[in-house]
Design brief:
heterodimer; A: alpha/beta; seven-stranded antiparallel beta sheet; 16 strands; B: 312 residues; alpha/beta; four-stranded antiparallel beta sheet
Chain lengths: 271, 312
């Protein structure tokens, strides 16, 4: 797929849903034709522009789930219905599945949003989905009610403090599920350390996987070079964010480091 | 199979296509990938003697015909550069061109001294970025005097550091009254070659729904297919005046474009914005197209075409 015109489109905020204390879903009027797993660049003139996974694009509306964690996302949280957001994209690769498969989704934090979008495609293809959502606490769990409402999707919850569902890491739940069920493919989006565990498990069990690798992205279309991963040297904005297990296993930076906006390595385990 | 190799200031390239500075070029592995996909060599993103912040997003936008960029020359400094270039050398044998930049003469002296240890095959001096004027003022490439001064300084520092043998090419701006007079002044100051052209403008794109310029920096350098006729003309002019080694760059997007640039006078052809149109895979497509064209037209040696349009 080729993106030639990468100019922003101004989309009007139609509705804002407070999902958790930190996360709001912005429902924008208009579609950019995004597929599950892809991202867009959201722009507020005079503020900044940042990449966000698409939480839904149904041909009429674009949904973005945004946590207020930095200056830009806080500026997004101050928007009102009727305000404009500049949107470039969609960019990057997509999640994909075959008809009638049994799938396991592993979402950590805001990773639930793009996987929720993909769940619609999966169930439309007669797949059954074991959807594992993890968070530190119950009140940080994202999209669990929406996920539960989907047909042929079984919701599994893990919280670190045990305030909801399984007490512990969501990767433990994934391990239990792949032990018990015949899973065709694992899909994961969230903190890299979690995705590393999912990749290791998939490899050990011989299960296919699709992994959403996040790096510092600027242009979104493979030119600026800031998001290139080591091991393949590919720009993750074009050859990712969704990568096959086979490709992720070739990455030498996965789970180890990412790069900041100057291209310098930043190690995940650095204090 | 035509012989596509070229020699630039004594450095041999398997083919004339080099990754232009500013596109990809941040990590050693990404540059090695560009070579794997077909490039004859690579140019780093501009290297500073110290860490330098770029501009906030949006930094690059494209329409069907052009790209506008104001990335703002971000770089983490020499320590990171050494590591990435070493990695590139582990993975690739194709020549490495280190593009260096500074905000003032002290910066150029410092990075020229630093870059020696990185052992580049060629050094390209960026004196022509059009999207950092707020910070650095008019590019040095706009002044006959300043462009000669910086060239002399870089040559002197290299010689003092025992690296006087590394060829130096100076990257010129098209946004001047007379690019040939700038080329003359840097060649007289000791430059071994010329890189032409840097991006055009700067230009601006406005989003009418917001009534705001799109780039955070408001203005950015114009590149892409739209600027190719300008680049070809300036390379033609410089070659006509000096018959010097030239890295011709600006809007080259296919094999035929690259041959056109060589006929104007380029020995090497820089490819940058075209990566937006075809990914880094475009290098392989271009090499194939050049090779097919040579075979079809009975050209055994591609380098015979350099400056061909000037012959009677």
């Amino acid at each position: 797929m080729k993106v030639i015109n990468t100019l922003p489109r101004a989309l009007k905020v139609k509705q804002i849903v407070q999902e958790t204390e930190q996360v709001k879903t912005f429902i924008l009027e208009g579609s950019v034709g995004a597929k599950p797993g892809q991202f867009v660049m959201a722009w507020l003139p005079g503020k900044d522009e940042k990449p966000f996974s698409v939480a839904m694009d149904n041909g009429l509306e674009l949904h973005l789930a945004i946590a207020a964690v930095g200056p830009f996302s806080q500026a997004m949280h101050e928007l009102k219905v009727g305000d404009l957001v500049g949107v470039r994209g969609p960019f990057g690769t997509t999640f994909s599945c075959e008809k009638g498969q049994h799938l396991a989704f592993l979402a950590g934090g805001y990773g639930a949003a793009p996987l929720y979008f993909f769940a619609h495609e999966a169930v439309a293809k007669d797949c059954t989905v074991e959807f594992i959502v993890g968070a530190r606490r119950q009140d940080l769990l994202l999209y669990t009610e929406k996920i539960e409402a989907l047909k042929n999707v079984n919701l599994h919850i893990a919280t670190n403090d045990g305030s909801a569902g399984y007490a512990g890491f969501n990767t433990d739940l994934l391990t239990q599920i792949v032990e018990k069920e015949e899973i065709d493919c694992i899909y994961t989006c969230g903190p890299e350390i979690m995705m590393v565990k999912a990749a290791e498990l998939a490899k050990a069990k011989g299960i296919d996987a699709q992994i959403s690798v996040e790096r510092y992205m600027k242009c979104g279309f493979g030119v600026c070079g800031n998001c290139c991963v080591d091991g393949t040297g590919e720009p993750s904005c074009v050859k990712g964010p969704v990568m096959s297990l086979e490709k992720v296993l070739k990455l030498t930076d996965f789970g180890k480091y990412h790069r900041d906006k100057l291209g310098k390595k930043q190690y995940f385990n650095a204090a | 199979m035509a012989d596509l190799s070229v020699e630039f200031c004594g450095v041999k390239f398997p083919n004339p296509l080099v990754l232009a500075s500013g596109v990809l070029g941040i990590t050693g592995e990404s540059m090695a990938r560009v070579v794997r996909l077909g490039a004859g060599g690579v140019t780093s993103k501009s290297l500073w003697p110290h860490a330098h912040e770029g501009h906030p997003n949006p930094v690059v936008i494209t329409s069907e015909h052009w790209m506008l960029n104001a990335v703002g020359i971000p770089d983490a400094g020499p320590e990171k550069a050494r590591e990435e270039i070493a990695r590139y050398r582990e993975l690739s044998e194709a020549p490495f061109i280190a593009n260096i930049v500074g905000a003032n003469m002290e910066d150029y002296a410092a990075i020229a001294a630093e870059v020696v240890g990185m052992k580049p095959d060629i050094i390209e001096v960026n004196i022509s970025c059009p999207n950092v004027e707020d910070e650095m003022g008019k590019p040095m490439a706009c002044s006959v005097v300043k462009s000669a001064e910086v060239t002399k300084l870089v040559k002197k520092v290299l010689a003092e550091n025992g690296a006087g043998g590394i060829p130096v090419t100076v990257k010129l701006s098209p946004n001047v009254e007379n690019i040939v007079s700038i080329a003359t002044s840097v060649l007289e100051a000791g430059a071994d070659g010329i890189t032409a052209i840097n991006s055009v403008g700067p230009g601006m794109a406005i989003d009418i729904d917001f009534a705001k310029p799109i780039l955070a920096n408001k203005v950015g350098g114009l590149t892409g297919p739209a600027i190719k006729p300008l680049a070809v003309k300036y390379v033609y002019d410089i070659y006509k005046a000096h018959k010097c080694p030239i890295i011709g760059t600006g809007g080259v997007s296919c094999g035929r474009d690259a041959i056109e640039m060589m006929m104007a006078g380029a020995t090497l052809v820089g490819v940058g914005s075209a990566v937006w149109l075809g990914g880094a895979e475009i290098f392989g497509d271009m090499v194939k197209e050049m090779n097919d064209w040579c075979d079809k037209n009975g050209v055994a040696k591609l380098s015979d075409l350099i400056g061909k349009v000037h012959s009677a």
